[in-house]
Write a structure and sequence with these properties.
4 helices, five-stranded antiparallel beta sheet
Amino acid sequence: MQSLTIKTSNQNPNRPSEYIFNLPQSALLDNHSLSLVSVNFYNSLYNIEKTYRNNQKISIIWNANTSVQYDFEYNDAYYTVSDLNYAFQNFCLLNKLYMVGATSNVMYAEIITDPNRYKCMIIVNPLPTSALATAAGLTVPVGATWTLPTSEKCPQVIIDEPFGKLIGFNANTLPSTINNIKTTILGDKTPIISPVSSLTLTCSLIDSPYDNPSNTLKNIPIVVAYGDQQVHNNTTDIWYSIPRQTYTRVVIEFLDSENNPARLKDSEISVQLAIRNN
């Protein structure tokens, strides 16, 4: 039995999800089998990616005296729900979509979780009239281009389909009508804050008619938090027959849940394989 370890240095610069181990010399493998011993990688998959998922957009309709729509795009990164809310509210601050209170700024739209129902919620509060703002000690931020409405009005949040998948909402304008009281909208479905729940490891030495893709070596559920290292050691020997031919290299690749090249941002990996003569 021989052991083969594929590391970060074997990464294909033209296809980052792929790692190539060039054999010291060509080898005829006849009546040989392959088994995965261990695989280590870091959970470094973004959940928002503009060019790959197009799930970076959210909009707010600021229903002041005149309604104006503001469009926001998240930067590519991994976000928790609280991160999404922080970035969204920071966008509102930059665009002066808030009011100034005696001790803190007052925000009028937020995205939060409801852990008991395993869903996200969007909460909007009504912008006050001038009289109500004065009574509450609230002022419009300096430099704002809007004026307070003549009657209380909640802002509205526009969710498109790709971003909605992330936080568990169908594509919609929320609320669908302009309300004058605090409004809480519960998500339509379970949020998928981590779109990739498992990785498929493939190997060029395998060709099985029963798997898709046919060179699947292992399906690895991601069980660690973002940024943590996942260490997987095989506790059960599973041996795959290697098609008889002469090999000059071994190629492995990480695929996502939809069999696309996995976009791991951290290329640090270690995969140990075992090859035996039957």
